[in-house]
Amino acid sequence: MSNKSITLKRQSNIARQKIIEVTTEAESGHLAGSLSCIDILVVLYFKVLKHNPKKPNWEKRDRFILSKGHAAPAFYTVLAMSGYFPEEELSTLRKIDSRLQGHPDCKKLPGVEISTGSLGQGLSSATGMALGYKYDNKEGQIYCLVGDGECDEGQIWEAAMFASSNGLENITVIIDRNGYQIDGRTEEVLKLEPFESKWNSFGWETKEIDGHNLEEIQKSLQNSRGRRVAIIANTVKGKGVSFLENNNKYHSKPCCREDCKEAVDELCKKLELME
Amino acid sequence: MNLKSTRDAYGEVLVEIGDKKKDLFVMDADLSMSTKTCFFAKKYPERFFNAGIAEQNMIGIASGLSKTNKTVIISTLAIFAPGRSYDQIRNTLVHSNCNVKIVVTHAGLSIGKDGSSHQSFEDIALARVIPNLNVIVPCDAIETKTAIKAAIETPGPYYIRLGRPEVSYINNKDYKFSLGKGHILRKGNDITMIGCGIMVFEMLEAAKILERINISAEVINMPSIKPIDKDLIKKCAKKTGSVFTCEEHSVIGGLGSAVLEVLEEEKNIFLKRIGIEDTFGESGSPKELFEKYGLSAAKMAENIKKYVN
User: Fold this and answer.
1) Is A107 on the interface with B (CB under 8 A)?
2) Which candidate in B96, B98, B99, B132 is best for mutational testing of the A interface (most A CBs within 10 A)?
3) pLDDT of residue B271
4) Contacts of A58 in chain B (CB under 8 A)
5) Which of A182, A228, B92, B122 is the most exposed place for a label (fewest CB within 10 A)?
6) Which residues of A touch B66 (CB under 8 A)?
7) Chain B partners of A125 at a C-beta cutoff of 8 Å?
8) How many whole angstroms separate alpha carbon B34 and alpha carbon B257?
9) B174, part of any domain
10) Last residue of a domain, which of B111, B139, B168?
11) Which residues of chain B does A122 touch, with a Cβ-Cβ cutoff of 8 Å?
């Protein structure tokens, strides 16, 4: 089967398998939050972003910043599948001398615009890039993925205010609204709701979507071009594998070898059904 | 005497550089009147952005902006950067090797009456431990201008620490700042004084007092705290055998510590760090505070005398 005929849905499934396998291989990594955002990343990298993996610094590119840097396994998977580096390298995740650090390091890996990992900071960086693009009259859109728990950080809202105050209309923030953070449900740790109206009141257009519906993701990401939009993507932590879904045990823990096999088998069965 | 604050010199040189360098952008966090970035803001409003009272976001915005092929200078008071925005400086700005220069003003005790909440004695220590961050403390208006120019010409992150009060001119107009270089301002054989910023003037005055009691003090201006001039420090320390470091900063982690680190393997060298002992400051005029905290020329001379005889 040629690469072109593989549907987006199949690519998502394959990406999930890789995420599960590489985190098990690394014996660490944030599995569940990678699976909640992978559909968004697959659509973004394979359908929406104007980019050139052979020329990561191409002047006219759109940009993507992973503010929730712990979803590095998902990020690296789409970067590898796009051709930024060989897919075999994914197995070096979190290992000594690897370019695939626990959290994205822009000095090491092509395709990483800026280092992230300490939460709450990526949206400011993305906003700074949007400001630079606006000044230069560049067409590109800046996309930034933040976690819902990450929105506890005040800096997210400082950046949100700055973007609207400066009239930026080339930035899309996608919030991976999986409902959990390390210590439990977001609404139990620190209430985010009413979440959409918070973004509205900070001067952003908002759109709530099903963060696993590929067409809906694509439409909302494409429609946000040339605007300042916060997309609240409702997602499921651990999405795609029955025993991982909404199981916060896997926030920062991978599957053991046996569970990895079971998870990959389950995904393979789903893939066969897509034939 | 002809006086100018380092922050005023900074404000002026930004306007000068901004004229030719069109990719230079400046940000502030609602303190542009104090930091003097207001001069640039007035002349080039399209290249000035105010983050509001949000230092952490300012670091991030500047970092992102720099990644679109721009040189970005950001300013606030020393107490807020790195203090208020440490993680952002470490994890976003410096980790990503952003071409951003953090220029802070109102450092140390000489901010005066605002008191301890605004007196930063820890910023050199905090900046110095971040890998790949150059740390500069100019002593006068001339050194400030040349150091800012040098930082802007060199890609990568810088931390430049300026003061609030007017200070005397130490250097002549042809002086050029050079990263990693210190300068002997006064020759002497008995002791070596190494200092930075506002303390350079105080050291030169202290050396005059010491001369009257037959202590010949060598005075070194050390604007480049990181990287530091190891060769000069070692050479002078070996010559006199007694080193006194002088800084408007905590004795923990600042210039004194940096000099101590350079001399750690040297035998038979005495070293005393003069600075703020492990304490918060308080309100008062800069002059009163320098007397009380032992940083005036007279107090330093008195202190040094105890160790020499």
Assistant:
1) yes
2) B96
3) 98
4) none
5) A182
6) 128
7) 60-61, 63-64, 67, 92, 96
8) 30
9) no
10) B168
11) 60
- Going along chain A from its start, the domains and CATH numbers come out as 3-274 (3.40.50.970)
Q: Has residue B178 been placed in a domain?
A: no
pLDDT tens track for B241-295? 999 999 999 999 999 999 999 999 999 999 999 999 999 999 999 999 999 999 9
Active site residue B55: yes
User: Over its length of 309 residues, how does chain B's per-residue pLDDT go in tens digits?
Assistant: 689 999 999 999 999 999 999 999 999 999 999 999 999 999 999 999 999 999 999 999 999 999 999 999 999 999 999 999 999 999 999 999 999 999 999 999 999 999 999 999 999 999 999 999 999 999 999 999 999 999 999 999 999 999 999 999 999 999 999 999 999 999 999 999 999 999 999 999 999 999 999 999 999 999 999 999 999 999 999 999 999 999 999 999 999 999 999 999 999 999 999 999 999 999 999 999 999 999 999 999 999 999 996
Average pLDDT rounded to a whole number, residues A66-83:
98
Last residue of a domain, one of B143, B168, B193: B168
Interface contact flag, A159 B91, Cβ < 8 Å: no
Tell me how many degrees the CA angle B106-B112-B118 measures, rounded to the nearest 5: 55
pLDDT tens by residue, A226-254: 999 999 999 999 999 999 999 989 988 99
Q: Give the integer Cα–Cα distance in Å for A82 and A35.
A: 18
Cβ pair B61:A161 closer than 8 A? no
Same domain membership, residue B141 and residue B7: yes
Q: Can you give the C-alpha Rg of chain B in angstroms?
A: 19
Asked if B57 and A125 come within 8 Å (Cβ–Cβ), the reply is no
The owner of tokens 């909302």 is A220
Instruction: Find the CATH number of the domain harbouring B100.
Output: 3.40.50.970
Residues B188 and B277 in one domain: yes
Residues of chain A found within 8 Å of residue B87, distances taken between Cβ atoms: 118, 121
Q: For residue B2, what pLDDT is reported?
A: 87
Smallest CA–CA distance, residue A120 to chain B, in Å, is 9
CATH number at residue B243: 3.40.50.920
Answer yes or no: do B51 and B99 share one domain.
yes
A129/B67 touch (CB, cutoff 8 Å), yes or no: yes
Tell me, yes or no, whether B239 lies in a domain.
yes
The range of the structural domain enclosing residue B230 comes to 183-308
Same domain, B124 and B193: no
Question: Count of domains in chain B?
Answer: 2
CB pair distance less than 8 Å for B46 and A135: yes
CA dihedral sign of residues B83, B84, B87, B92: negative
Question: B60 and A135 in contact by Cβ < 8 A?
Answer: no
Q: B199 with B246, same domain?
A: yes
Phi, psi (deg, nearest 5) at residue A134:
-65, -45
| E strand or H helix that includes residue A269 | helix A257-274
Catalytic residue among B55, B143, B202, B248: B55
- Residue A4 pLDDT level (bands cut at 50, 70, 90): very low
Residue among A128, A154, A162 whose CB faces B63 most closely = A128
Same domain, yes or no, for B264 and B190?
A: yes
What Å distances lie between residue A114 and A50, A92, A159, B68, B96, CA to CA? 18, 21, 16, 11, 6
Asked if residues B245 and B194 have their Cβ atoms less than 8 Å apart, the reply is yes
CA-atom Rg of chain A in angstroms? 17
Co-location of B222 and B291 in the same domain: yes
The answer to the question of residue B176 being in a domain is no
Q: Do A132 and B69 touch (CB under 8 A)?
A: yes
Q: Rounding to the nearest 10 degrees, give the CA dihedral for residues A9, A10, A14, A16.
A: 20
B161, B202: one domain: no
pTM: 0.97
How many whole angstroms separate alpha carbon A183 and alpha carbon A78? Answer: 28
